[in-house]
Amino acid sequence: MSTDKNYTRWKRTRINNWLHFQTEISAHLNGRSFFRGVTSVRHNLTPSVGRVRDLDYSLDFEMAVFEQFKREALPYLRSRPNDDWEWLALAQHHGVPTRLLDWSESPYVAVLRGLGQ
Q: Are 20 and 56 contained in the same domain?
């Protein structure tokens, strides 16, 4: 891999409107592509728990936040998640910083995530 600061593996295209987006993305709607919507091009493949501002990552912090979510969410759930994987997915869905990365088979879902929706 190049150490050049301007090196990028992925082609970048500025999208001007919705039709332009649909045209650009059409070649990737092949069932073999996954999309990740992020709010900044500067985000690398670091899970949200590793991007928490003003804090260095620690397993203790991650576990404390996760356990707090489980305690506080329980009264609002119709059914209890079966294991920590289900809890993690639920926490991620509700904006808790976790070690999971969001991926989608839909570029449209990724766009919404990228817009912070």
A: no
Query: What CA–CA distance (Å, rounded) separates 74 from 14?
Result: 43
Q: Which distant-in-sequence residues (6+ apart) come within 8 Å of 15 by Cβ?
A: 21, 24
Structural contact between residues 69 and 93, judged by C-beta atoms closer than 8 angstroms: no
Owner of token pair 């039709």: 19
Each residue's pLDDT tens digit, 73-87: 999 999 999 999 999
What domain range is 39 assigned to?
12-45+101-117
pTM: 0.66
Same domain? 32 vs 73: no
